[in-house]
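Bug #77: duplicate submission created two jobs. Keeping one. Sequence:
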Amino acid sequence: MITLIGSSHPAMADPTDPPMKASDVTAAYTTAACDPGGTTSTDAALATQLNSALDDKMRGYMTGYRVSCARMVIKAVYDRGLSKRAVAIAIATTIVESSIQNISEEVDHDSLGLFQQRASWGSRTQRLNPTWATNAFLDKMLRVYPNGSWQTAPIGEVCQAVQVSAYPDRYQVEASDAQIIVNAIWPYIDGPNGTASVYGVLSDGRLTYTGIDAATGKRTAGAELSAVSLGFKAKALAALNYNTLLVTEDGRDGRLYRVDVISVRDGVTFSPPVLLGTGWTHDLLAYDGSNYLFGIADGALRRYKLTAGKPVLADITGNTLIGAGFTLKTLTATGPSWILGTTSTGALISYKINGAESWQRYQLRDTTWEVFDHLLSPGGGVYYGHRNAEGSVHRYFDENPLDGKGDDLYGQGVVDTEGWTQVLLSAFPDSVT
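Kept job's structure:
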């Protein structure tokens, strides 16, 4: 039989040479490692997350090994400088061809690897190298679809054009699951770096500190607790930096305090709160990391300029009324002059603040975000949502938090399912990049 050069299947349709179907997912094929370093705990955690998120063939069958294989494919595409659509095309192909396994035995003629590439593609060693195999797949895709035309063609059509399968209809049905897999793993390839530093206030006035690895969502510190309380009932909290907090008192005077943190090791220690002034009746506060503090009281959004890292009242200037109608349930800042909040009806809304009566509003989500009592961002497109109901914290990643779009915002699982009993939370900005 004639073999098409560069194809993983014979040039003519051959019903004895199909790509893998659903029943092949659990077949005990001999496989080779995808990542020379093996699978990671993150791979295993993502497999658990994906097993309930996928809809088709791979639902319930993702493992840490399969995630490691997908991760290597995604990294190869990322290193190539191609878009996430190219990743989805490659992953859809591996779902159909190998159930995302680096198959090292010749089950189908002389086909090997994640893409089940025939001997005409390259040596055995090359085809079992996920990076080489992915680039070989991409090379042909770019030849068949020049000038970026693969970016608009249906994913299943592109897969078939590269693979030349006897069963062309099996690729497109996996396109949606391929995108889900890409969305889950992509942030670990091109994702946030750093430790999110999260401060909180308990109902008894004690302070808490928690460190969270932005890439994995695992706690690196805390929750550390203070031995003493603030001495007043806190209403709103904004972390300015690692050792400076602004806190308002829940009272008619609207007292604003600065809290200087001394240490967060083996508990939180802080100096006695410094009273800065009165009239701060804000229900919500957020600091954007670039000298602007935002506050909302009765739906009115105000902006202040901070001219010192540890401000006194004279360092808080430029009291500007941005506008009314900001009836948000939660508030955080995602970048310079950008704020993010949720509504009681579940909308997630981003705002670019320009000045008095000047802003752009972007609705990233219409529903479901009403479950969060606090929303916080340490920067880098990382968001954390806190649910008081069970004390859980959920994490999200926004590839570009300043584009006003919600199609690049993905859920990344749970930091903790319980235990966060704080009544206020704030992450200081720019701790994550």
